[in-house]
Amino acid sequence: ASDLDPADGARARELDPLILHSWSKHGSTNPFTVARGEGVRLWDYDGREYLDFSSQLVNTNIGHSHPKVVEAIQRQAAQLATVAPATTNLARGEAAERILSKIDDMAAVFFTNGGADAVENAIRMARVHTGRAKVVSHYRSYHGNTGAAVNATGDARRIGNEFATGHVHVFGPFLYRSEFWAETEEQESERALQHMRRVIEAEGPSTIAAIMVEGLPGTAGILVPPPGYLQGLRALADEHGIVLILDEVMAGFGRTGHWFAHQHDGVKPDLVTFAKGVNSGYVPVGGVIISERVLETFKQRAIPGGLTYAGHPLAAASIVATIDAMTEEGIVEHAAHLGADILGPGLRELASRHEMIGEARGRGCFWALDLVTDRGSRVPVDASVVASLKSSLLERGYVPFTTDNRIHVVPPLVMSDDDARRGLEILDDAFSAL
Ligand code: PLP
């Protein structure tokens, strides 16, 4: 990292107050300074090296600066850097083709700028397709920061943004903190489905356009759906003519060790939202994957929505290169291996030795450590504990993803076995030092 100049770091920090950062009070944050990235490593302007166990916002699935993706963006920029959405363009068509090749029985793609507007447009499609308004989603969820997406969100970021109507929330399954007095995954699944069924009946099934859940809820704590839950939602949606939207923005594109998280459960959604891992965020992009059934509606009438940058050529070229590299290099299979052989066993072993780790859960490169004051009561630790762990990890050269009372262990899927083991050692050390 010899190309880095500490003076640039000082200048970057000096200019930072010109930016109002997401979800924060102006001037209240002291963001981590990043100058350069390669694979699973990041450097600050002083040349300090870090292992990225956050994948930023869980999006750099292919790691930083993957040469094949960088080269594809450069090539496309030299040929045609931007073009109107209503034109036909090879990169755009190939991006759709690559995406559809990783999921069965889907017919077309609608491109957006990122995850929130993917959710926004999926909800719009479900409403137009059904002629109904309501969307049922989970309290423990995050779906993005725009109008309908933030109102569909279940977590506290919804509050303060509740200007859209037609949003209903339910508790989804989460055995470790069960709302249903369940003692097994099977009970949790069955009772959460019964709760969903009762809410749909009470709201009036003919008023509900969509059930929307994350393929594997991420920000809410990596809540692996218990057996039968997603299939149960599919059956409920079919029973009442409701559209099933699976939000795969965070869990999709290899994160869980399958191309899409819902493929672990063999369920077939009507609409799938994606962003993040589709091109590891090298260029902002997202979209909706549409089933033949929903696409039929838009053969009869125009979709009432669109974006200047829908199917942006730089994004499209980066999608093609990302999916090709992931396929050729076996990156999704590697994510499954890291989860099954290194991260899963390693994190469970840490949980067995550190009282504070109440539970380690996840799959692939998508794990959470749920931190508690006491194993019996499972009371979450408070924010100051997580903040001090976060700074201790950063001091040790480990970039963590923290939220609420948890550390999410979510490295790029290209991490070597040795780097993953190194991360486990650093975690062990930081918990011991606490
Ligand atoms: N949906 C899910 C499941 C997400 O995790 C996120 C972001 O974290 C979004 C939607 C919103 O995506 P974006 O931030 O690209 O708008």
UniProtKB/TrEMBL annotation:
A GO molecular-function descriptor: transaminase activity
One Pfam family matching this protein: Aminotran_3
Highest rank taxon of the organism: Bacteria
GO cellular component, as recorded: cytosol
Entry keyword annotation includes Membrane: no
Residue runs in coiled coils: none
InterPro entries: Aminotrans_3, Aminotrans_3_PPA_site, PyrdxlP-dep_Trfase, PyrdxlP-dep_Trfase_major, PyrdxlP-dep_Trfase_small
Cofactor (UniProt): pyridoxal 5'-phosphate
Signal peptide: none
Keywords: Pyridoxal phosphate
Family classification: Belongs to the class-III pyridoxal-phosphate-dependent aminotransferase family.
Protein name: Uncharacterized protein
Native source organism of the sequence: Agrococcus pavilionensis RW1
